[in-house]
Each structure stands twice: as structure tokens, then as C-alpha cells.
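The pair is quoted verbatim below.
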Amino acid sequence: MKKKDLEKLIDNLPLTPNILGRERYFNSSILIPLVKLQNEYYILLQKRAKNIRQGGDICFPGGRVEKSDKSFKHTALRETKEELGIRKKDIKIIGRLDTLVTSYGVVVESFVGLVKKKAINNMVLDANEVEKTLLVPLSFFKNTKAEVYTLRAEVKPYSIDAKGNKNIHFPAKELNLPLHYQNPWIEKEYQVWVYKYEGEVIWGLTALIINDLLKKY
């Protein structure tokens, strides 16, 4: 390495570390809307429309970070306006949670915002994305023990199609890698939290993020 290369390396090292390979992930941003009703704070959640990806799931307003978005916060506010009709001026961002990186390639930036009561009363839902909304007291999550289940994930270098054919995606044998890389490896179990509220099931990333929020107070 020449001196000029070292200088270039030093100049390009990030002052604030980011997520390695972030451009390969599905980058998203959400809003955790809190609204005060009758001296109690509620979380505003939404149920996704049935005809879209992950239809029927309970989630926060939010979505993919677009190139035109000025920041992750901008994404969260834009998506909230598009999905629920709540305007930026009716939301006060009070902070954010840690960045969530999932094992299946999704990055979630979470912002906590106080929403004006009048904005809740005047919501206009995008029927193409949102079936309905739910207001759940924070005290419910604080006082209710979540059901905990386990999912298992594994890395497979191949897949089996509907006809039973084996399709190789990672040629471990041709690369002369150790034998165990030709079969599934890295079996990992992880916990899934589940809450049941008024006939709805709140689980997955939504429940995980709520659990993180609860730890803050």
C-alpha cells in the first residue's frame, strides 16, 4: 500500500459506522405513533389490507425507503401520511429506537412520535394498504405477558422445486469447500413474541419493536 492509498483509506473510513452492505438490504422506516386519550397513552397500529404482501398482519405505519426521501425520518412521516392521512404537522418526533436488522435481510428504522388527538379523529385510510386501525393502550403491553414461541431458520445451498428437482444455488462442491457446506448449515432458533388484543394477533417485528419500546420506561 502506497502512502496516497493509505491517506485515501483514512479519508474514506466512516466517522459513524453504518451497516455493512446496507444497499443489499430492504431498507425501511416506521413510525410508532403514540396518542394521549383520557390521560393514557395508546399505540396506533394498523391492519394491512388482505390483498397486499403480508396482508392481514398488524403493523406500524411505514415502508420502504425511497431514493427521493431526505432521511429515514422523512420516510416514516411520508408513509404515515400516505397510509393513514396523518400530516407531518400533527406529529412530534420524540426519539427513535435502535436500528433493527433481521436475519432475512430487512433493516428497520423506528421513530417514536406523539400524534395529536384531532389527527386520529380525522384519519383517511388508504384502502389499498390499510384495512383498519387499532388503538392499544401502552398499559396493555406493559401489564400483559406475551406468548413466546420459537422459529427455526437455516441456510440451504440448494432448493427442491415442485417436481422434486434439486437446484443448486451455491456450488460448494465445485468450489472444493468442506463437505458440510453442501448441506443445510447454521440452524438458528429465535423467539417470536405474540400478543392477542380484541381478536387481533400482534406478533413478529411489530411485537419485537413494542418489546424494545417497553424497555425504555
Summary: The CA atoms of residues 9 and 15 lie 12 Å apart. The radius of gyration is 21 Å.
